[in-house]
Amino acid sequence: MSFDDTGSGMPSELDAEDDYLSMAFGDPAATAKETSLQRTTRVKREAAERGRVLSKKELALQAKAAREAALATELDSSNKGAKMMAKMGFKGGALGKTENARTQPIEILMKDDKGGIGMDSEKKRKIRETAAEMEGQQKRKRVDEDEYRQRTRDEREERKAEGQMWSAMKTLERFDTDCANGDDKEDSNAKIENQQNKAISPPLASANVLWRALAKQRLDRERERRMRYDLDQSLTQRADYEDPDADDDDKAALGTDVEELDEEDAELAEFEELKPAVRLEKILEELRRKYHYCFWCKFRYPDESMEDCPGLTEDEHG
């Protein structure tokens, strides 16, 4: 309250209004008194809250919150354990002889499941085994793909070598047949390309093993053809009958002079066990050595030097 300058002691007119610029605050308004009904409701609610049985999940959450709060609280001198350590001479700092020793207590690792102590290690082991197995499967998959590609390439190369082998075999057969018939000439390149296969007059066993398989195939086909012919024509002549007066031409006409195949041709069987590429190499070597003929050049050279031939393999011929 302020007074005027007259000293009359009467309150000033400003006292009638509140001084909003002053730092004085009025007393807070008195709170309303709780009624008996409100008090009864509050007591019942608090009692029900205290008496409510918490679920396992709520209890676990409360325990986890309390544990985290306790672990987050640093130890101070008021802690009972700290007081005991202080009595034994501990003055703070690292918990060890060295300076870089542990300064905080060992962390607590809580288990949230019902597994035993070694369950985590077992899970980690299974995870590592699963990862290793998956990695092994990936490696095997890559190996299988590589093996498949390599096997495909090998099969393709083998089919190619086999086709070239049969072609070279026919060429060598022509040379040997012409030489046996006394028709081996230096200018027989055109004949080699255009002449058709001739029938093999020598016995099968005397044929060169490098092309004996061709002769055997022709004999097999000829036997099958004549057997089909005999069945189709229903010849009246018995198969086991042999005319003593029939000459070679009569036997050829009747189909009774077919050479019996030798099933025990060990030399041919041994040669056919080789891979097509190896058989091809042997046939080409025979052509070059015996007739100075290059299968890749398709040309017969005048002498064994074969001067203009690029080489022995197909790759060398481009």
UniProtKB/TrEMBL annotation:
GO molecular function: nucleic acid binding
One GO term describing the cellular component: kinetochore
Region (Disordered): 1-51, 104-203, 218-252
Organism this protein belongs to: Friedmanniomyces endolithicus
SMART domains membership: DUF4187 (SM01173), G_patch (SM00443)
Positions of the G-patch domain: 77-122
Pfam families linked to this entry: DUF4187 (PF13821), G-patch (PF01585)
Lineage top rank: taxon: Eukaryota
Full protein name: G-patch domain-containing protein
InterPro entries to which the protein is assigned, alphabetical: DUF4187, G_patch_dom, GPATCH11
Record field: compositional bias (Basic and acidic residues): 109-162, 218-231
